[in-house]
Design brief:
- This protein is mostly helical and about 90 residues long.
- Helix content is about 55%, strand content about 5%.
- The chain contains three helices and two strands, in the order αααββ.
- A two-stranded antiparallel ribbon has the order 1-2.
- Strand 1 and strand 2 form a beta hairpin.
- The longest helix is centred in the first third of the chain and has 28 residues.
- The protein is rod-shaped.
- Bound molecules: zinc ion.
- The site of zinc ion has 8 residues, from loops.
- This is Zinc-ribbon domain containing protein.
- Keywords: Membrane, Transmembrane, Transmembrane helix.
């Protein structure tokens, strides 16, 4: 039984983890999420963390500042929940 065989098997796994982490980092950066947190998260497990990332980032709508009060308002809200002004980012979810 060769001990070194199992270590060689880990190399593609590390490459996969690193690729996944780098992709998530880049995607999170583009989408305005916490890239360091998500990038690190992507390095921990493959492929379940990628699935979790995709679900969270695709299911949770983006948000932008309200044009009137400046507080963060989800883009699927027609009106600002803080001040009631119509949301200028409404519909810009993708
Ligand atoms: Zn507002």
């Amino acid at each position: 039984m060769k001990e070194s065989f199992s270590y060689w098997m880990l190399i593609p796994l590390f490459i996969l983890l690193f690729t996944q982490g780098a992709w998530i980092f880049n995607d999170a950066s583009k989408r305005g999420h916490n890239k360091w947190l998500w990038g690190l998260f992507g390095l921990l497990n493959v492929p379940s963390n990628l699935i979790v990332y995709l679900i969270v980032t695709r299911a949770v709508p983006k948000s932008g500042p309200c044009q009137d009060c400046g507080k963060k308002v989800r883009n699927d809200y027609r009106y600002c929940p803080h001040c009631g002004v119509s949301n200028s980012n409404f519909g810009k979810n993708k």
